[in-house]
Fold this sequence. Notes:
The protein is α/β, with parallel strands linked by helices. The chain has helices at 34-44, 77-81, 88-98, 113-121, 123-132, 166-169, 186-198, 252-258, 279-286, 329-339, 369-376, 380-394, 475-490, and strands at 13-14, 23-30, 50-53, 70-71, 155-156, 176-177, 203-205, 209-215, 221-228, 231-243, 269-270, 291-292, 297-300, 313-316, 344-349, 364-366, 416-420, 430-433, 436-437, 444-446, 452-458.
Amino acid sequence: MSERDSVAAIxxxxxxxxxxxxxxxxxxxxxxxxxxxxxxxxxxxRGLDVLxxxxxxxxxxTSAMSxxxxxxxxxxxxxxxxxxxxxxxxxxxxxxAATAAHGAADASDRPDLAKLRRYCDESVDHFHWLVxxxxxxxxxxxxxxxxxxxxDSGLVFSGGEDSRPFCDLARPAPRGHKPQFxxxxxNFLMQCLADAVGKTATRTMVDARVDRxxxxxxxxxxxxxxxxxxxxxxxxARRGVVLAAGGFAYNEAMLAANCPEAMRPDxxxxxxxxxxxxxxxxxxxxxxxxxxRLDVFECALPLGPPHRLCRAILVDRRGRRFVNEDTYTxxxxxxxxxxxDGDVFMVLDDxxxxxxxxxxxxxxxxxxxxxLARDMGVPAAELAATIxxxxxxxxxxxxxxxxxxxxxxxxxxxxxxxxxxxxxxxxIYATFTLGGLHTDVDGRVLSSDGRAVAGLxxxxxxxxxxxxxxxxxxxxxxxxxxxxxxxxxxx
Length: 491
């Protein structure tokens, strides 16, 4: 059975069966993406002997594939220089709402408030930590939201802060901070963090996989078994092990068992690498660690840039609107996939249409609403009623049904067109996992009864994200670097 076909916990090896160790370190960090690199830096700067073990040939992981946005706020220098006021309380109020599961009904669907409060209160400090470790930011604002800037501008709205319902809950402030690099900056960020790791005394092993944890007679994690060069080496971890080995977006069995909807986009647009196979989660489960929210995943349906395309309307198979089109693409994608079966369309006219970054083109065009509905295969009366109601209020810049903001509200004038955004018809629904190990504010892995598993820490997508269902771009790199840093400071 391959790694992609297993959900089973990986049982640890007993220390008494190891015989002898081949190496030792105070701290072993498993995975050197943004979370692992931050943990290694933090632990090494405390004077600890750190060994980083990376499955790939160099540090980076999924972090290096990202757009590079880091969710930071509370009044960073970049925010101030760009003319935006922010504070930790406003940031917290927004994130409590934005990261809760869609339609959250109980505490398990809501973010860990202790973690979230710490994250917001120390966000400015974390910004300075990143800068001090070689990550530059340019104080320039990009007004195209929801993704990294095409130039090296360092600030963007990245989570729907400037759209409803969130702009009515908390004063909008952009918090997506992008390192100073043109377009996607994930690889650049990881080069900066890898350089920072290299300036410490951290030792690294690449092309090496941790196959099992080592536990003592009391169940404490005291080492790892590493597979490299066709042999297994046992490495003692005198103070502990930090698991930062990614999520499980490429473990077919774990996806099928926990969040099968994330497998629906075809072709698959899963964000991750082959190393996102859930191994870190399964290693911890074998040592008594508890998983949390493995059913939670992000699903983005990118419609821009340009953001002005949101002057169009989005309708489902019944011909009805379902969301304010100016909101965050993650909210749009999740609602489209989970509430409307990934069977949706964008309806617009010639004054609105332009090719977006992904090259979206008209799938259908017609002189009348009725003709368009027939081509789309939606009820003509419903679509006509939807457009009539929208146009009636749009003439006054209003959207009473979904609260789209006035700059993006305008009547649709025939001839009309529609872009097919069906999940089974090739539209991009980008997914990745958000669930992982249950950890405390210092990255300690917790058991099912809430006790810390001695010697075991986790960060990044191996742990349950701050996002408990709702997502904002930049929270993964923010969460990973922040709590990776905390884990390295606590181990």
